[in-house]
Design brief:
Elements: E1 3-5, H1 39-46, E2 50-54, H2 60-67, E3 72-76, H3 82-92, E4 95-99, H4 107-113, E5 117-119, E6 124-128, E7 131-134, E8 140-145, H5 154-157, E9 160-164, H6 169-184, H7 186-220, H8 226-262, H9 264-280, H10 291-301, H11 314-328, H12 335-346, H13 359-367, H14 377-382, E10 390-394, H15 400-411, E11 429-433, H16 442-447, E12 451-455, H17 462-476, E13 487-491, H18 501-504, E14 507-511, H19 518-525, H20 541-561, H21 576-589, H22 598-609, H23 615-629, H24 634-637, H25 652-659, H26 675-698, H27 729-743, H28 747-758, E15 764-765, H29 773-788, E16 795-800, E17 809-812, E18 815-818, E19 821-822, E20 829-830, E21 836-839, E22 843-848, E23 856-864, E24 872-881, H30 886-891, E25 895-898, H31 902-907
Parallel strand pairs: 2-8, 2-9, 3-4, 4-8, 10-13, 10-14, 11-12, 12-13, 15-17, 16-24, 23-25
Antiparallel strand pairs: 1-5, 5-6, 6-7, 16-22, 17-22, 18-21, 18-25, 19-20, 23-24
Pfam families: AAA_9
GO cellular component, one term: dynein complex
Domain Dynein heavy chain ATP-binding dynein motor region: 42-238
Length: 909
Amino acid sequence: MPTLQKHLNWPTEDTFNLRSMLQHNSILLDASSSSSDDDPYVILELTSQTPLIIDSQGESSRILRRLIPGTIITTDMHSGTLSTDIASTIGNGHTLIVDNLCEPLPLCLMQLMCPKFITDSQQTSIQIESRLFPYNSHSRLILRTEKPSSSFSKLLLQHLCVINVAVGEHIVRDKLMNIFVLVNAFPLTQKMDQLLIEKTNLMRQTDTMEDQILENLVKSKDLDDDRCVDMLVEIRGLAATMKEKDAESEVIRAQLDELKEKFIKIGIYGTKLINASLNVAKLSSFYKRTLKFYLDVFQMSVAMPSETLDESCIGEIKKNVLKMFRFKVSRSLFAEHRRVFEFLVSGVIPLKELPTTSESVFAKYFTNLHTERTINLRDQIIYAELTMPIVLLLSSQSDYVIRTLFSIAEFTGSTTSPASTGHGRRRSVQLVSSEDFLESDWMQVLENDQWLIVLNCETLDAGKLNEVNKLAKTILASDVRKSSFRLFFVVYPDKELASHSLFDSSTVITVDDSKLPFTAFINYCYSSLGPSRVHSTLQTSYLRKQLFKLCCFHFAIFQRTQFGIFGFANPLNVSLSNLECAVKLFEGTMPSTPTPNFDAIWRSVIDIAYSTSDLSDRKVMQTLGQWVFEGVNKFDDRALDGIWPKDFNQSLGMFKMGLTEMKDINDWILSGLGKCVIDELQKVELRKTHQSIVSFLTESEVSTKKTGILPTEMLITKTVSTGDGKASIEQCLCHELQFLEENGIFLERKTYIQNLLKNSPIREIALYFVERPEAIVETLRFSYARSLRTGLEEVETVGIVRGAMSNDAIKLVDVYLLGAGLKPESHILVDSNHAFSRIEGLQIVARRKAARSPAVILVPLLYKSKLDSTTWRHIVNVEVESQLPESHWLLHGVKFITCEDCVKFLTAK
């Protein structure tokens, strides 16, 4: 009868107990440790639990291959063939390494960690999913991840032996100094290696002779055997020779140690650069590199002519090392993270002091940091290393880069390319998906001297990436390959995270469209592939000017989307695809109108290409377009001075030459937002950068509070009656209360509403504590119309910021004004030095409709629900007085908002 049994992955002594050793959940070689690289792996052999290797530096693969005999199968936890790999491994007795471990775990992996075995007279089987597979007792399971142990639940860690194989600073520094002397003192290191080989040979000879002596003594049983005496004499000579070799080795070792000590500053500096690189890699997984990669970067940059090698060279060597790290590491980062790398490298604030540095001190140094301006995309591609593929890390907004590659390929074409046309020698480009790359006819691509672009490589698992890397090496080493050939791997890291094994052996280039300055953006628009290539087809200067303004409008819209609620109330996805659509609409509809005004362009182009369902955002967009195309008032229009070319009658070529002379402007000005908003958002970005640096330096664990699934909208199962049957604010709150009770959510909100109902009539309310504030506003309107015995169409509800409370009004608390301020006495809307300010005394009042004073403008009041934190809902318009038109304030992002914990939201946006 079959029996069930538990199985331990590794055999272990019954008396051995790891519990006390693993209380801290890691074995970490820190700066004070003197252990060797292999020390953590001792635990791997001793533990009876499933080992989880935390390897943020990618070093474990090299050592595991050396420590574990037999076949090692490496797979990814997210691989579609994981269950098949498990079945194959346990049946053949191999070692299975599962990479990128994260929760939740798939069922097949959980079954392997806590296996159930069925044993009969013939074989032992293991259950994987719903099937039984043959089990070989020599099989092993090793889990591996780049994440810290704090990323996993305590329940899971109880079943794992966590082994951290990260190396400390002193080991990195020793590795760097060994590389330094290997490169710059090669004769000495070569001599040391030669002496070690000779000593090894001498020891082997001695061992052989000792064995022969023992054998002769056993046979002859004579201690004075002549042959034994001769061999003893020979052994004595070998010992003397070995002593001489030892003395010579000591001399060379002392020279090497002296050389290391003399140039130790280079090792310390290199360690600082590696630490900065490793810390920046904590910002995003697609920045991960192995320690070997950084050591190779260091090795490329420390060579100096031996005749000039003295301490005066240290400064020059450090410059070379920094230059190489910038080339290999910094250019692989997006712009915002490149600044973090440069800041950590600068050392203006030591790493150990950064966690305790105040935000103001950090901001002082970070804002004054000068970062390296990278060379343009074309030069990076043309001058990239020929023996390595190029990985392009693209943001979701950078879809134009693929088209740019076609242009670069054409204008750097081969004169022998069979793809040439009558228009000149042009190279074509082949596109292939990452899934089809392994089966592609790459030899035909090489023969035709084409470029090969592999798309969406972020979707590949670890197993496929290894195959892709092997094929890339084969292609680049082919004899058919010409020097002009380029192989590209395109990765969109904001969609998925690719393994860093793809990047270690590649030239990585990042393209982040969100950081494209205005002048670079306009030059792209008027490039051969840009959307404004229709410039020359337009018949009049006026049309060409309007086309240029359309490009400026797109840039203004894109800039404004970066400011969250200050720019648009709800998320607005704007990319170059919108501009492409707008230009096509402009080309198709505007030429029939010699002098199209903004209204015509709005109806036929902008309102279609940049459509949004939010009416308040649509009004803001229309105001922004009016400002760019026609102007709002002289106060705002001055911000656009200097961006308009003087002459639109020139040909496209001459016009593009004029664009190169355009002066740089502050890109944020084109968003239309007020200076106070821009300054505040820059402070927020600095604060977020400071917090992210502090968090990855301190490795702090962020506790997350798990909540149940919230309903997506307010629904109740039965009608609530307040007794009199009349519509009232109290009845609205009774509905809110029943909704909370039926779903068992938001206890603090429930208590608040209960207190309001106890103290009715309700004269004051925090609007964000109710889910349907629109019902309260409509109830005010309905009650007022009923009291006057008039129709609803004659009554309106508006917000007011001054005046005595009436019976037909309700006061709101925790309301904030964005982008402007109110004068305390007159309550007139004015520019402010603060991006937001708290407003006291705002009321929603019901009244008869009447004509408004010319000095009164309407500003929207927006509300955010706790059930839908992605959407701002328009509740009511608030009347305020202003000496400037409404369009000016809409352009500056002025609005009233209310939401739970408003200040925290605004300062963390």
